[in-house]
Write a structure and sequence with these properties.
CATH topology: Metallo-beta-lactamase, Chain A
Radius of gyration: 19 Å
Order of helices and strands: HEEEEHEHEHHEEEEEHEHHH
Oligomer: single chain
Number of strands: 12
CATH architecture: 4-Layer Sandwich
Number of domains: 1
Number of helices: 9
Largest sheet: 7 strands, mixed
Distance between the termini: 39 Å
Helix content: 25-40%
Shape: globular
CATH class: Alpha Beta
CATH superfamily: Ribonuclease Z/Hydroxyacylglutathione hydrolase-like
Strand content: 15-25%
């Protein structure tokens, strides 16, 4: 159990927030929550690391703010310029730093499109694989979001992806002034460009969608359980005790091991059932029924993702 030794009493704050289940998102469209990052709800979880939780509001990510003696790093920026403005305002409350770096866990709209609110002097850092996702998939993803609701369309009006100032292949180390951030390209998993961030002195890992308390978002033949497990293996080698996922509650390092156990179980069962002559659809239906109840803490409405994972494991089986 995480004892808060690195985060002090701040650990109590984020634990209490998770237990309270409160949500503060302003609702303008009765059909869809207005996806704004919470203003005035920044919590310190370690000596240099702060988060604003998503409060389980759709299209809002958990965002990170890491403050060093010389510069501030922001991890994920929300949907559109308005969210970026909120995040910049919150970051400026935490220090007098005028040097900002921006980075994202992956190219999806709710993680990338607030970056334009930051000053021109702020440097955008991306893994090359994430940049490829931005170039090839980013605008189509943004257009899909715009078509989902009037609220999302309004937030995304005039938005575009910020150009990268720094590109890296496997790992990039950023010194914020007494605070070291290791940025690791760990995809393909949820996306080809998945990027994780280890705040070394704090033992905090921003894992993106690679490890969360939800059914893993793996979809389609282009994705691989074997590759996702390789990504989890890289995370397992890091010295972290607090894990901040892209969405959902903050947790301990067991978030990473739980995902690996989940995928390993699906692989084992799918391979065995395929050897018995079962079809891919049969295996998917059977594993959703068999394994779904084992994860009551994960969102039941996403159970179909277990079926997706079963089909992929079936295809990967010899």
């Amino acid at each position: 159990m995480f004892d808060g030794s690195k985060g002090g009493t701040a650990a109590i704050c984020w634990l209490g927030l998770m237990l309270s289940g409160t949500a503060h998102a302003q609702v303008l469209d009765p059909a869809t929550p207005y996806p704004l990052i919470d203003q005035g709800e920044t919590f310190k979880i370690a000596d240099h690391t702060y988060v604003i939780l998503d409060d389980d509001v759709r299209f809002v990510p958990n965002v990170g703010i890491v403050v060093g003696g010389l510069a501030t790093l922001v991890i994920d920026t929300g949907v559109g310029r308005r969210n970026g403005e909120i995040l910049l305002q919150e970051a400026r409350k935490l220090s007098s730093n005028e040097t900002f770096f921006i980075a994202t866990t992956h190219h999806h709209t709710e993680h990338e499109l607030g970056a334009s609110a930051f000053p021109a002097s702020a440097q955008m850092i991306r893994a090359r694989a994430a940049q490829r996702d931005v170039d090839e998939l980013g605008r189509a993803h943004m257009q899909r979001f715009s078509g989902m609701s009037a609220n999302l369309a309004a937030l995304l009006d005039g938005a575009d992806f910020r150009e990268a100032d720094v590109l890296f292949d496997d790992e990039y180390v950023l010194d914020l002034g007494g605070v070291t951030v290791r940025m690791l390209a760990v995809g393909p998993a949820h996306t080809r460009g998945d990027t994780a961030f280890l705040i070394v002195e704090d033992g905090v890992l921003f894992a993106g969608d690679v490890a969360m308390e939800r059914f893993p978002g793996i979809r389609g033949a282009d994705y691989s359980i074997a590759a996702w497990r390789e990504a989890l293996g890289r995370l397992a080698g890091l010295d972290a005790e607090i894990v901040v996922p892209s969405h959902g509650p903050i947790g301990e390092f067991s978030l990473v091991t739980a995902y690996d156990d989940y995928f390993a179980t699906i692989q084992t069962r799918a391979h065995a059932l395929k050897a018995q002559g079962r079809s891919a659809d049969e295996v998917a239906e059977l594993l959703m029924t068999e394994l779904g109840p084992n994860y009551p803490q994960w969102r039941a409405e996403d159970l179909n993702l277990l079926g997706n994972a079963a089909r992929i494991a079936y295809a990967e089986a010899p």
